[in-house]
Specification:
The structure is a single chain. Helix 2 packs antiparallel against helix 9 (about 235-240). About 35% of the residues lie in helices and about 20% in strands. With about 250 residues, the chain is of the alpha/beta class. The protein folds into two domains: about 1-95 and about 205-240, Periplasmic binding protein-like II (D-Maltodextrin-Binding Protein, domain 2, 3-Layer(aba) Sandwich), CATH 3.40.190.10; about 100-205, D-Maltodextrin-Binding Protein, domain 2. Strand 1, helix 2 and strand 2 (about 45-55) form a beta-alpha-beta unit.
């Protein structure tokens, strides 16, 4: 019986050779196509499959046995928890630092700063679920530190991830807290800084340090390590910078 199971494992491993499955925080989706394209230049035989979602939900999937070999989180908390629990095989490393931005399809007076949210013209505010999305947690922190949380909390429209928050900001809300990286998507090119979007004051929230780890599922697979090393490379850092991230 053990030989049969071993044979099946070997067979499955051979079928999966050349393919890697990544769990990636939704905010990275806007940079991921370019990251994959650059990686493919160096490793053309490796197929990269990406599952996007909120970091909390992806972590739950990993804990439940989802076959991901690498996790790019929107914060350090979830990778650190996975490492502590033995689900990650590398210590969490910061691959980029994200930033929050306000976004609206309508012209807004951003000179008011976060107090703009209290305007009677702002009836709905899109925000990612702070329980599972680090950018949502940062948005809550910004509103509390900006002394507007209590006066605007009834306006919240919750999204499951930061990418869904962008969709809600366009279709179902007057304004939203989004990842600055999403503003570099071609679909957002028609919107203007100072008119439709503005950076949230960075002093209002804790820096969003995004962490990467290799997971147990990647053991013995050099292709996961190659992608991990690529994400920490100078070339990948150039790409992250293009999408509004801070890198060291």
């Amino acid at each position: 019986m053990k030989k049969i199971i071993l044979a099946l494992i070997v067979s499955i491993s051979s079928l999966l050779a050349g393919e890697i499955n990544l769990a990636v925080a939704a905010n990275v989706s806007y940079a991921m196509d370019e990251l994959k394209a650059e990686f493919a230049k160096m490793h053309p035989s490796t197929k990269v499959e990406v599952t996007l979602g909120s970091s909390g939900k992806l972590t739950a999937q990993i804990n439940n046995g989802a076959p991901f070999g690498l996790f790019m989180s929107a914060n350090m908390k979830y990778p650190q928890a996975l490492y502590k629990e033995g689900m990650a095989t590398t210590k969490p490393i910061v691959y980029a630092q994200g930033a929050l931005a306000y976004f609206s399809t309508k012209k807004q007076d951003f000179s008011q700063g976060i107090k703009l949210l209290e305007s009677k013209d702002i009836q709905k505010i899109a925000v990612a679920n702070p329980k599972t999305a680090p950018y949502g947690k940062a948005a809550m922190e910004a509103m509390k530190n900006g002394s507007v949380f209590d006066s605007v909390k009834d306006k919240f429209v919750y999204a499951e991830s930061i990418s869904q928050t962008v969709a809600y900001s366009i279709s179902a809300a007057d304004i939203g807290f989004i990842a600055k990286s999403s503003l570099y998507s071609p679909k957002m090119a028609r919107y203007k800084e100072g008119v439709n979007f503005k950076d949230v004051d960075a002093d209002l929230y804790t820096p969003i340090k995004q962490g990467i780890v290799l997971l147990k599922f990647a053991n013995g697979n050099k292709e996961y390590r190659e992608f991990y090393d690529f994400i920490l490379s100078a070339k990948a850092k150039e790409i992250f910078k293009k999408y509004g991230y801070l890198v060291q």
